[in-house]
Design goal:
By secondary structure, this protein is mainly α. Helix content is 62%, strand content 6%.
Length: 980
């Protein structure tokens, strides 16, 4: 709140009448929340001089010197007394005292002065840093820095105030440098780049900031830019001061050139403090009949034993499925437990399944197991990985990463500190996992295979039929899983002989069917539990297994079963009790992969009539479509799409507000898209296409655009195969949008043209409107302004004919951008205003942000940079609150453009850096090239031409790869350097 000091009041209760003072900004005083009138600049100068003495008495001569320096007025003493008298009337009694011919301000609480509070926080941060608690030190330093409110002693005249201003600003920069240094130690280098870019622009001769920026860029994988910062710094110091960079900066440049591995990660990340150390023991039980693998056990044991003296010991076991990777890894891990007294972590990464575990989810689980509170676990993968390494520093922990998909999934989960070790199992050989000890696990030797078979079946039964037993293990290909399956079948059948089993496996045409006995043996276990279920439980078990998603919510399950929510929950919880279903989280359920296959087999076998399977999946699709349509209606009031969707027979959820609606959409994204893919044929196709259209935010936000695009492609192909022109037209429209947001404009243009053709032929008006709008946008991107205007005018006309006001507003905003490009700034502003006002009249919060975005562009082109910046900031706040990463990144990019036009290059660089971070992995390379171009312009104006050249060269490579006309502009920007 304006006028209220940011002293950390939570550190002590304050009476409503307590006086508080601020000098880390304008000199101000408050009584409770009331801002007091502290008078003229000279009067505030007196108050400042007394506050800066922190309760000590200042003589009259000292105060006169502070206020007027060497040129006091003739009646300076009288004026001083007048100022003191006026201040005494404003302040509480006993605060401003007359002592020994001078004055003093007595503060009731040291923290009632923001400067004193900052000093206390800085001391606390230093203490925490010295004790190794960097997390707390960073937090406290941020609290201290937040107390600054602009220029210290702002507007206060006099030499004393001027000297104190310089001192306080230098102190603030020192605190900033200290905090940024700890940021890098904690692995937050990517986040620090934007702030350091702005700081180096504001303080170009401050070498410590340049050094931190170089390190942050290098750790973010931007080595060329880091070296360019050094070149810019050396040139600036030579031009401005005639000196070379200090030795520390030179040394850092050399280490970057040499790719010094000690620069790649923080030198001493500190673990987040935990009230009580936690020692996880997550290893699964080892099998009692573990057999053979002696050489591998010894080899892996030696690697783990070496962890104490190495940065990290990593062993990666690879082999085909069923070769025994997990069994071996668990056995070795148990043997090595004593070498890792601080605990053992375990996770099944599900790499062999359709949906592998996400590293950020695994890290969250690991951090909780290591004692980290939920509130302290950050959101992003990078931050979680950095915190994970910090928590493990100084501990000796073994991490078993089972069933990994690839090295990319594993890297964020590696400890990275001395004394820790990791065991990884995977079906792929991880040659790209740096520093890993690779082990290729083959099938068993004949002796080992026979030994395993014997342990399971029994010595007596095998001894009398040794040759038959050798035939069995040979037929199993010496694969441990197949041997265990066959042996388990035999052990469970006392009337069978080994020869009977060997005969069954001798027929090669039937061998795989016989070896599926492992499934049958597992199925026998499942069948035992399934046979004990009540009819309603058995029906639920069968039908819920039909859905492809990784898990299912309680509400979605109720739709599948066509039952009330409470009854559904009782059924699902009873299945959890039988171990046939798992509780993934409150209100969410999942199957083990093999149990799901068994459930589907039961559905095919037992569900009568068979049409009930299709009916169940139809109800699930209806539920998702009805709920997604409700989310769409909340986000886009007045939009006619909801009136043009296929009708549903199953009701969806109702949400109290936008936030709850968004939470549902993003939490259900993976399961929703799986349902779409599963519904790409037959009677469900049209509803699947409409569901994808209604869930458009999953792509437009950038959150799930790859999965969304894949689903759209599958639906378009399915509709084409079914000769369903209406569905194909809508699917092509959805695909055009998805490819637009991912930056593939040529492909998007083709899909939009096809959507328009098919929708016209099918008499489907709304897709025609949107296809014309999209084609207008693409024509604009390609500078085909005549075509663009024709398409957009058509879109506006057809939206109006459909009564779709939000669609009309969208086309108006797009037409505004076209008018800008064709030097019609006044009409561009008018069109953007029309669109924005239409959105706002409809209560269309999210799309109104798109209107503000368009209006901001128009105002900027018309030279109204302040108004443009205000509009873009309005848009940014909505996009950020709505989790629209793509639009948030694009708005930051547009703000950078405005900052450049307003001669604010430092702010432009900071916004461009944030845009790059936000658009990482989304939006396509063309948008990234645009941001890099603007960043280079900002850096050039900041005197960082070397780094600017790096940005432009990367942008040029992008544009040339896309055959984009923007390449010409970047070539022109690079030309002066090429000629030099």
């Amino acid at each position: 709140m304006d006028g209220v000091p940011r002293v950390p009041e939570q550190r002590g209760p304050e009476d409503s009448a307590t006086l508080r003072f601020g000098v880390l900004g304008p000199v101000r005083a408050w009584r409770g929340e009331e801002l007091l009138a502290t008078g003229s600049p000279q009067q505030r100068a007196l108050l400042a001089a007394l506050l800066m003495r922190e309760g000590r008495t200042a003589t009259a001569s000292e105060l006169i010197d502070a206020l007027w320096g060497d040129d006091p007025p003739p009646r300076a003493l009288a004026a001083l007394r007048t100022y003191a008298s006026r201040l005494r009337k404003v302040l509480s009694p006993g605060v401003l005292l007359s002592e020994s011919g001078g004055y003093a301000v007595r503060l009731g609480e040291p923290r009632s002065l923001d400067l004193a509070a900052a000093q206390e926080l800085a001391a606390e941060a230093e203490k925490a840093k010295n004790s190794g608690d960097l997390c707390h030190a960073r937090q406290v330093l941020n609290e201290a820095l937040a107390l600054w409110d602009g220029e210290p002693l702002a507007g206060v005249p006099g030499p004393y105030a001027e000297a104190q201003r310089a001192r306080l600003e230098e102190w603030r920069l020192q605190l900033l440098e200290s905090r940024l240094d700890m940021d890098l130690e904690q692995g937050c280098h990517a986040e620090a780049v934007s702030e350091l870019t702005a700081l180096t622009a504001a303080h170009p001769l401050r070498e410590r900031l340049r050094e931190l920026l170089m390190l942050a860029l290098y750790r973010s994988g931007r080595q060329a830019e880091a070296l360019a910062v050094y070149a810019d710094t050396r040139r600036l110091l030579a031009d401005e001061l005639g000196v070379d960079p200090r030795p520390g900066l030179k040394e850092l440049q050399q280490r970057i050139l040499q790719a010094d591995p000690t620069l790649a990660e923080p030198s001493a990340p500190a673990p987040e403090p935990s009230a009580t150390p936690v020692r996880p023991a997550q290893l699964p039980a080892t099998v009692p009949d573990f057999t053979g693998r002696a050489a591998f056990v010894a080899e892996l044991g030696e690697v783990l034993a070496s962890a104490k003296g190495r940065v990290m010991a990593v062993s990666a076991l690879a082999g085909i499925g069923g070769v025994g990777k997990t069994t071996l890894a668990v056995h070795v891990a148990h043997q090595a437990r004593s070498a890792f007294p601080d605990g053992q972590l375990y996770v099944d990464l599900q790499g062999a399944g359709p949906r592998a575990a996400e590293p950020e989810t695994v890290l969250g689980s690991f951090l909780r197991a290591l004692g980290t509170a939920d509130s302290a676990i950050p959101d992003s993968l990078e931050e979680r990985s950095a915190l994970y390494r910090s928590v493990l520093d100084g501990r000796r922990v073994l991490v078993l990463l089972d069933n990994a998909r690839d090295a990319a999934q594993v890297r964020p989960l590696l400890p990275g500190t001395e004394g820790c070790a990791a065991l990884v199992t995977s079906r792929v050989r991880m040659v790209d996992l740096a520093g890993a000890h690779l082990v290729d696990l083959d099938v068993m030797s004949p002796d080992e295979a026979l030994s395993l078979f014997t342990k399971i079946v029994g010595e007596e039964r095998v001894a009398s039929e040794r040759e038959a037993a050798l035939d069995v293990v040979a037929a199993c290909g010496f694969l441990p899983l197949a041997i265990r399956i066959a042996a388990s079948r035999l052990a469970a059948r006392r009337t069978w002989t080994v020869s009977v089993l060997a005969a069954k496996l001798a027929d090669e045409r039937r061998r795989l069917d016989e070896l599926q006995a492992g499934d049958l043996a597992v199925k026998a276990t499942f069948e035992l539990g399934y046979g004990q279920l009540e009819p309603a439980q058995a029906r639920a078990f069968r039908l819920l297994g039909l859905a492809d998603g990784p898990d299912i919510s309680l509400a979605a399950a109720a739709a599948v079963l066509d039952l009330p929510l409470e009854e559904t929950e009782d059924l699902l919880e009873s299945l959890v009790d039988t171990s046939l279903l798992e509780s993934a989280a409150p209100g969410r359920y999942r199957y083990h992969d093999l149990v799901r296959l068994y459930a589907r087999a039961c559905a095919e076998r037992d569900e009568h009539p068979p049409s009930e399977r299709d009916a169940a999946m139809s109800r699930l699709l209806d539920f998702y479509l009805a709920t997604a349509a409700g989310v769409y209606a909340i986000e886009r009031p007045g939009d006619r799409l909801v009136d043009h969707l296929e009708k549903t027979r199953t009701a969806g959820l109702v949400f109290p507000d936008r936030r709850a609606a968004q939470d549902w959409l993003y939490s259900e994204a993976v399961s929703l898209l799986a349902c779409v893919r599963q519904s790409s044929d037959g009677a469900r196709l049209r509803r699947a296409v409409d569901l994808l259209w209604a869930a458009v935010d999953l792509a437009e936000s950038g959150a799930n655009f790859k999965e969304y695009e894949a689903a759209a492609t599958a639906l378009r192909d399915a509709a084409r195969a079914a000769s369903d022109g209406r569905s194909e037209g809508r699917a092509s429209l959805v695909l055009a949008n998805a490819r637009h947001w991912s930056g593939y404009f040529d492909q998007a243009d083709q899909e939009a043209r096809e959507a328009l053709r098919l929708s016209e032929a099918a008499g489907d008006p709304l897709p025609c409107c949107w296809a014309a709008n999209i084609l207008g946008a693409f024509a604009f991107y390609q500078s085909r302004y005549g075509d663009a205007e024709d398409y957009l005018e058509r879109a506006i006309k057809e939206f109006r004919a459909c009564g779709d006001l939000p669609g009309t507003a969208t086309a108006l905003c797009n037409l505004s951008r076209l008018h800008l490009a064709t030097d019609r700034a006044d009409s561009a502003i008018n069109l953007a205003r029309q669109g924005t006002e239409m959105y706002e009249e409809l209560g269309h919060t999210l799309k109104a942000a798109n209107g503000h975005y368009a209006l901001g562009l128009a105002l900027s082109k018309n030279g109204q940079q302040s108004d443009a910046s205000d509009r873009l900031m309005q848009a940014l706040q909505v996009f950020r609150a709505s989790r629209q990463r793509l639009w948030e990144g694009m708005t930051l990019f547009r703000l950078a453009e405005v900052d450049l036009l307003a001669q604010r290059p430092a702010q432009a660089a900071a916004n461009a850096e944030m845009a790059l971070a936000m658009l990482r992995g989304i939006g396509g390379e063309w948008r990234r090239g645009n941001v890099l171009t603007v960043l280079g312009k900002a850096l050039t104006r900041l005197g960082q031409s070397g780094r600017a050249q790096v940005c432009w060269r990367e942008a040029l490579e992008i544009y040339e790869g896309l055959n984009s006309p923007e390449a010409a502009e970047v070539q022109a920007l690079l030309a002066p350097a090429a000629a030099a």
